[in-house]
Specification:
CATH superfamily: DD-peptidase/beta-lactamase superfamily
Helix content: 25-40%
Number of strands: 8
Distance between the termini: 24 Å
Order of helices and strands: HEEEHHHHHHEHEHHEEEH
Structural class: alpha+beta
Strand content: 5-15%
Shape: globular
CATH topology: Beta-lactamase
Radius of gyration: 19 Å
Largest sheet: 5 strands, antiparallel
Number of domains: 1
């Protein structure tokens, strides 16, 4: 751990570290990595270079890829998705824009009805895309917010068709590389699974989080791998919009609320619900959770970034570890 830097309530950060250490010591969690900074100055760092499967923290990365193309005039987020995927038509699909896909307001499902079957036969992403294009909408586009991994999948398909590159290569070249995220990849990035943190899956299958199939599928909604310090660099892109990779106004637009009038606030790829990332955090805080047991968030008011990566699924670690650590970090830097 690096030396604590003030002005902060160091006892809160120490308590956060104790929670993580106790969870590992008890065997409840196999591995935990934490990276907390304020004004880019490191406050807490444990295993910052250990690579974890990020799960849904991948979503704002895919969203950033779309926004890079928007900055270059290759597309507009108010374009209909069908402009880039002509076969995505009928049944209300013609009304879906890229903004709907970015804000979880498209009407597409989170997972496909045939999701399990696709994974069981180790289907390529192209098969998921084909199924997402024809799956029925659950509601009229723009009428409500409902989490939709398949909307992120179609954004990835659009990014590939517009850029002419596989998404994993496009993100490596245009996002991860320029930000110095040297340990980040969509998919395994040539590394071996044994060199990453192993997820604590409830039941091992031929397609679970620890299998070569899932780890290297490169799912744009959940397949990125990264160490905590790299995720911090990604948060910094939005906390300090300096024109790196994204134009400042574009970066700011991604963390602004884009779902006014609907029941749940969302940015473009980022969660914006107050209190979701530390009860003491400001209402400006943005971030994302990952089902593998990860969370990353930043508070523009206090200039704090917090990344917590674990091996225990969020369904079991969010209340006992990810949430409490986030609360303590937010309390440590609260004004």
């Amino acid at each position: 751990m690096s030396a604590l830097a003030g002005p902060v309530r160091s006892e809160r950060l120490e308590r956060a570290l104790e929670l993580a250490a106790a969870a590992v010591a008890s065997g409840e969690v196999t591995e935990v990595a934490i990276d907390v900074r304020q004004n880019r100055k490191r406050l807490v760092s444990t295993h910052p270079r250990r690579v974890f499967l990020l799960a849904s923290i991948t979503k704002p990365m895919t969203a950033a890829g779309i926004m890079i193309l928007a900055d270059r005039g290759r597309l507009s987020i108010d374009d209909p998705a069908g402009k880039f995927i002509p076969e995505f038509t009928g049944g209300g699909r013609d009304r879906i824009t890229l903004r709907h896909l970015l804000t979880h307001t498209s009407g597409l499902p989170d997972m496909l009805p045939e999701n399990i079957e696709l994974r069981q036969r180790h289907a390529p992403l192209a098969d998921f895309v084909a199924a997402a294009i024809r799956t029925p909408l659950l509601f009229a586009p723009g009428s409500e917010v409902r989490y939709q991994s398949m909307g992120i999948l179609l954004l990835a398909e659009i990014a590939e068709r517009v850029s002419g590159l596989p998404l994993r290569e496009f993100l490596r070249k245009e996002l991860f590389g320029p930000l110095g995220m040297k340990g980040t990849s969509l998919g395994l990035g040539g590394r071996k699974i044994a060199g990453t943190a192993r997820s604590q899956v409830a039941e091992e299958t031929a397609w679970d989080w620890n299998t070569p199939y899932w780890r290297d599928l490169g799912a744009p909604w959940g397949g990125a791998h990264a160490p905590a310090e790299d995720v911090t660099k990604f948060l910094d892109l939005f906390l300090y919009p300096e024109g790196r990779v994204l134009a400042p106004d574009t970066a700011r637009s991604m963390i602004a609320i884009n779902t006014a009038g609907l029941r749940e606030p969302w940015g473009l790829g980022w969660m914006r619900k107050p209190g979701l990332f530390g009860k003491s955090s400001s209402e400006e805080t943005f971030g994302h959770y990952g089902a593998t047991g990860t969370v990353a968030w930043a508070d523009p008011k206090t200039k704090v970034t917090c990344v917590v990566l674990t091996t225990k699924p969020a369904s079991h670690s969010r209340e006992g570890l990810l949430g409490p650590i986030s609360d303590l970090v937010a309390e440590a830097v609260a004004a």
